[in-house]
Amino acid sequence: MAQGISTAATGGRVALDKLGVILAVLVAAGAFLLPFATFRANRIVLGEPRSLLEALAPAEAWALLALVVAGGGVALLRMPIRVKLAASVGVLCALLVAVGRAGTFLTPEGNTFARVSPGSGFWLLLFAFALMMADALSRLALSPGKRLAGLAVAAAILGAILVSGLWNDLSILKEYANRSGAFWREAGTHVLLAFGSLALATASGVPIGIALTRAPGLRGPVLNVLNIVQTIPSIALFGLLIAPMAWIAANVPGASAIGIAGIGAAPALVALYAYSLLPVVSNTVVGLDGVPRQTVDAATGMGMTDRQRLAQVELPLAFPVILTGIRIVLVQNIGLATIAALIGGGGLGVFVFQGIGQTAMDLVLLGAVPTVVLAVAAAIVLDALVEMSERPGVREAHA
Amino acid sequence: MIEIDAVTKVYGTQTVVDAVSMTVPSGTIAVIVGTSGSGKTTLMRTINRLVEPTSGAVRIDGEDNRALPAYELRRRIGYAIQGHGLFPHRTVAQNIATVPGLLGWDQKRIANRVDELLDLFQLDPAAFRERMPHELSGGQQQRIGVARALAAEPNILLMDEPYGALDPIIRAKAQEDLLAIQARFGTTIVLVTHDMEEAIRLGHRIAVMDAGKLLQYSKPADIIAKPATPFVKELIGAPERPFRLLSLVRVADLAEPGEAAGAPLDAGLSARDAYAELLWSGREAAPVARDGAIVGRVRLQGLAKQAARPS
């Protein structure tokens, strides 16, 4: 399919890209029907939509419109993948710059109460061109190293925009400016919750997985219990932990001194850990089961002790599968950690729930956008690591 | 010397190995032949304790093989299996160095041994040392598998269907190599196969197993001439018997004084191949040459006499 689509127009007829048709519809809707930005007199009143042509100075508006339409055209037609990639990246950069310019353009001089936020048209355009870029990237099948480099470039662009102050007139950064101290504190808590629970789950889940392959009788019961834990809704699990954690804090000496309490970060960490355990344990079991039987037999037959065989043969060969489990857990926990705010556990969810309480969508975004960016970045980094850890020839040996 | 003494292995209600006793003298090759499920692999695995017998004992040079911890015993016994079982995440050199590494040899000694073994198996050390197993052909992987089994200079080598995955031409070459290595180091080899042809070609002694029982354990000529049971006879293949007998003898052993016309046969050729050559070229006799010099002749009649059932 990739080949067929990438070949240019054939036989005099203009060939259309299947995904491109959908993208072009999205682009048209985003550019012409939906508002590019929303203007509000203050942070909690209902917004007034501003179309793309209203949201920017005329010259910039027409330039962006031309770029977006051209980008939509590139998406619609069959063209080389690299052209599509360049077009999507170009339009995405232009959109990111333009949305900041719209903030400056729409904010009346000296007015600190007015709020300008990206409109649904902007989000739809961003989504359409991000999809186009993702499609082009996946068809290029870049090596893991190049994908990591691409991520670094994207992070650098984002960082440069933030440092330059281009977005300072956007509502989300105004919310940030009002609570930058709290933002970094909660972001730190968020990362700590997500990575801390992952570290605990890896440190205990891998040994549990190993134990299950050594004692097959335990496998069914243990995996079933972990499966049931996964099905408990996250809010319910956070709630369920309040009582036992409070009991531990009250009755175990020293427990409250190290921060254990019925609400707060401790039950949040425990809940995230409970969710993390199944992917880590089951991937460890699957990874170890996947080690070729002959390889294990040869290792034993040559006189490796159980421990040597595990460390030198089985774990290295199972590593990519275990790492895949860790990837699932990390991306899942970055999202789930948002819920921790409900029981006073902190994290970026604090802004989400505050924002919902105050009907201040910008504040919700201040919590949600960094969470999404973090999760996507974690997914890209770990996917690359998984691919780098896979060894050629190992899979064939399973046959 | 390996003494298998009344070894029985029971899994649940199934007796996989049933009171088998046999002795493999030092420096000889014993081949265990049988169909799948005959217990041949299980029997071999009791030698390095990959299987612990339900009853009976295995003694190596007179010492019970349970005297040492199993992993120490196994480090002294070479082990090569079908499909080679190479570690896919390690280089050729690291694979070969496995047991020396476990035994704590120093790096220099290991490196020397790796190169020596690669040379022995006609693989250029500089070219192969750093390769990964998946970059090798099936025959090369198999050779590395045997080289790895021999790395720590074991006196005993166990081989489980080592050539099962190879095509006939590469298999013949691998068998030739094994015979040469065995002759050179005097290793005691126990090899498991389902292929009687291979057993006759490699074995000083052949053990035929069926349904967990050892039916016959004798020299190839005896197995062919006097099969102990109908099953052994069937395994040899009755129509094949004369040719199997011929394959045990070399032309050099049958050469007689005299002259013959046509291209000479090499003295190292098996009598079976010589017989085929005479039939094919329509000759009654052919000269026998050793190192290019004619040392005598073989006759069709003389070869045919060799193929007859021994009295």
In short:
Chain A: InterPro entries: ABC_transp_perm/SBD (IPR051204), MetI-like (IPR000515), MetI-like_sf (IPR035906). The complex is a heterodimer of chains A (399) and B (311). Chain A has 399 residues and is mostly helical.
Care to describe what's here?
Chain A is mainly α and 399 residues long. Chain A has 2 domains: 2-171, no CATH class; 180-398, MetI-like fold (Orthogonal Bundle), CATH 1.10.3720. Chain A has 16 helices and 3 strands. In chain A, strands 2-1-3 form a 3-stranded antiparallel sheet. In chain A, strand 1 (37-40) and strand 2 form a beta hairpin. In chain A, 39% of the residues are buried. By secondary structure, chain B is an alpha/beta fold. Chain B has 2 domains: 2-238, Rossmann fold, CATH 3.40.50.300; 244-306, CBS domain Like (Alpha-Beta Complex), CATH 3.90.1280.20. Helix content of chain B is 38%, strand content 25%. In chain B, the strands form 3 sheets. A 6-stranded mixed sheet of chain B has the order 6-7-8-3-9-10. In chain B, helix 14 (271-281) links the parallel strand 11 and strand 12 (285-290). The two termini of chain B are 31 Å apart. The model of chain B has no long low-confidence stretch (mean pLDDT 91). Classes of the chains: A mainly alpha (399), B alpha/beta (311). Chains A and B meet through helix 13 and helix 14 of A and helix 2, helix 4 and helix 7 of B.
